[in-house]
Write a structure and sequence with these properties.
InterPro entries: Acyl_CoA_acyltransferase, GNAT_dom, Ribosomal_N-acetyltransferase
Number of strands: 8
Number of helices: 5
Strand order of the largest sheet: 1-2-3-4-5-6-8-7
Helix content: 25-40%
GO molecular function: protein N-terminal-serine acetyltransferase activity; protein-N-terminal-alanine acetyltransferase activity
GO cellular component, one term: cytoplasm
Shape: globular
Number of domains: 1
Pfam families: Acetyltransf_3
Order of helices and strands: EEHHHEEEHEHEE
Largest sheet: 8 strands, mixed
Strand content: 35-45%
CATH topology: Aminopeptidase
CATH architecture: 3-Layer(aba) Sandwich
Distance between the termini: 22 Å
Radius of gyration: 15 Å
Protein name: Ribosomal-protein-L7p-serine acetyltransferase
């Protein structure tokens, strides 16, 4: 299943915890202010070693079938990550997340990656629903969900904690067309 070719510019692949950690850390570090504004984990990613630890844990979760974290490769460069952060096997649903380094935004990369991972979720993981949770004020992430065909399911009060502050979160949903 992986690597997965999205189009001529983009592919999705599993990370190599040793080989990719340095580049991912640099990407996070260079984009930290933007990423940390919306994603609580970004401020705790403070070294190549912490990135390696995350990737090791992510690959263990993948092997256990609990989640899948994929690198977004754009024109042969790591541009960010997209993931199913969790699966609810009983309800046949997954929760998606994504981020890009600042220098890669504005190229439709996340949009194309989201559409592709939805196909993976529906047809390879047999999901019936996929959720994206985005802070209400995160216009870019909310636009990605909307353009990809997700529908606003609900607004969750204190849906995500960032630096100890609870933020309203939009819960976007896409259902498998039968």
């Amino acid at each position: 299943m992986f690597p997965y070719q999205v189009d001529q510019e983009i592919s999705l692949r599993l990370p190599d915890q040793v080989g990719d950690a340095r580049h991912l850390y640099q990407l996070v570090n260079n984009s930290r202010t933007t990423i940390a504004r919306w994603l609580p984990w970004a401020n705790s990613m403070r070294s190549v070693k912490s990135e390696q630890q995350f990737l090791t844990q992510a690959l263990a979760h993948y092997r256990a079938g609990d989640s899948v974290n994929l690198l977004i490769i754009y024109r042969d460069h790591i541009a960010g990550m997209i993931s199913f952060n969790s699966f609810d096997v009983n309800q046949k649903q997954g929760e998606m997340g994504y981020w890009l380094g600042n220098q890669y935004t504005g190229n439709g990369i996340v949009h194309r990656a989201v559409l592709s991972i939805c196909q993976i979720g529906f047809y390879n993981y047999h999901l019936n629903q996929i959720h994206i949770k985005a802070v209400v004020d995160n216009d870019r992430s909310n636009q990605v969900a909307k353009r990809a065909g997700f529908h606003l399911n609900q607004v969750i009060q204190n849906g995500i904690l960032i630096n100890g502050v609870g933020y309203q979160t939009n819960d976007w949903i896409m259902k498998k067309v039968k």
